[in-house]
Amino acid sequence: MFKLRSTILKDIRILTRDKLGLVFMFVMPIVLAVVITAVQNSTFEMLNTNTIPMLICNRDTGDAGKQMQTAITKVGMFDLRQVTPDVTDKEIADRMHSKDAVIAIIIPADFTQKLKSSADQIAKKALKNFGVPSDSLVITDSSSIQPITLLYHPVLQESFRHSIQGALKSSLQMVQNKEVLKSLYFSLNESALPDSLENDLMNNQIAINEIPISRDGSRNIPNASQHNVPAWTVFAMFFIVISLGGSVVREKLNGSFVRLKTLPTNYLVSLISKQLTYLFVTVVQAAVVFSIGIWLFPSMGLPKLNLPADITGVVIVTLICGWCAVSYAIMVGVFAKTQEQANGIGAVSIVLMAAVGGLLVPGFAMPESFQFVMKLSPLHWCLEAYYGLFLEGGKLKDVVLNILPLLGITFVIQLITLYGLKRKNLI
Question: Which label site among 51, 141, 310, 325 has the fewest CB atoms less than 10 Å from its CB?
Fold first, then answer.
């Protein structure tokens, strides 16, 4: 125990000598958490508020074009900017290139005419199915109807485009359904659809009650902080490989291993010392980032990080994640021949494991071929354990199936490290 304590004190002194590296360990995760959370929070706000700039060019002179414009406005996610009908598609594109807007809608000149024609055809088919004569309906060919044009800036990501397309299709469907109802009503009553009935049919829509699933029964909607703070805390834990891996390489190069073999101790004590010392550093890292999320984020206009009810579970998950990160860093240091190799291999491998582990792209969005590779990344299991606590409101028992694979990976890393030490005749 005395040898272990002395070795720990030695590692602490070595760690504190590198002031720049020490600052990097704690500043980097804070910067990552703040920047990524701010970026993603702005994305959430853009989707949930009326902030997406949209140019709209209504070349239709009928009612359907106006109704379409009104329906788009009611969606609530667009900042509509009117463009005169005589503006060309190229001029609209030029305005988009100047970042006046990232999307534009062009309603064709014959939109009302063709939409009514299409609605009449649908009404006629419906009446025929009901066995109602439909001779009063005037049917014209609508096969040549021009589609509504959606122009978008290439900088707009695919996920945004899908959201926008969904909103526009919903608006278009509303306008089309209104025309179908008008046609059906006229064919049955030979009179126009009353405004009161039209409003009742179109406005009394069933609401969607969004409820996030949770294990504790809470209905708190996860925010950008809940997603990003745990994720980038895990990333920072593993990025400790740059400092710890380099430290192991330096000890190999300066002969510390050889000196230890001549002393009444062995390098295993030194390894345990390094693991305990840097494990403490990872826990402090997590505590600092979580504290920033709780107390500093609200003052910066970012959503507050809400800690799970099971604080014990958070502590245990943090310890296991930190232990895995430290074990990986030592393994890299044992097999690297130079400090540059340790830094390069460590940094690149952590980024790759983060990419396939779900930190950059959600795991459920990954192709099936990546699912097996994803499960080999320790960062994936760390992230899943944290998300089970922070997002799902779970307790420690609910994330055991994430902790066990992480412990298994850590055990394998430890065995590989011991093998490397024996192969190099360092222990």
Answer: 141
Q: Which of 248-262, 376-390, 394-408 has the lowest mean pLDDT?
A: 248-262
List, in sequence order, every residue forming a beta bridge with 56; answer none if it has no partner.
Answer: 82, 105
Binned at pLDDT 50, 70 and 90, residue 321 comes out as very high
> What one-letter code names the amino acid at 235?
F
pLDDT-derived band at 324, boundaries 50, 70, 90: very high
pTM for the model: 0.72
Sheet of strand 103-107: strand arrangement: 78-83, 52-58, 103-107, 149-152
Shared domain check, 56 and 11: no
- Domain end (from 153, 177, 203): 203
The residue behind tokens 């309906």 is 137
Task: Compute CA distances 69 → 91, 103, 153, 196, 353, whole Å.
Answer: 20, 15, 21, 21, 46
Q: What are phi and psi of 152, to 5 degrees?
A: -140, 150
Q: Would you tell me how many other CB atoms lie within 10 Å of the CB of residue 20?
A: 7
Residue 208 lies in a domain: no
Q: CA 132 → CA 12, 120, 129, 188, 213, distances in Å?
A: 88, 14, 8, 9, 47
Mapping DSSP to helix (H, G, I), strand (E, B) and coil, where does residue 391 land? coil
Domain housing 333: 2-43+218-423
Q: What is the DSSP letter of 146?
A: P
- Cβ density class 363-387: b for 16+ within 10 Å, e for less: beebeeeeeeebeebbbbbbbbbbb
> Cα dist. 165→157, 160, 277, 343 in Å?
12, 9, 53, 45
Q: How many CB atoms lie within 10 A of CB 39?
A: 11
What does the mean pLDDT of the chain come to? 79
- Dihedral of CA atoms 352, 380, 22, 248 in degrees, nearest 10, equals -70
Q: How many CB atoms lie within 10 A of CB 415?
A: 11
Half-sphere exposure of 114 (CA within 13 A, CB side): 14
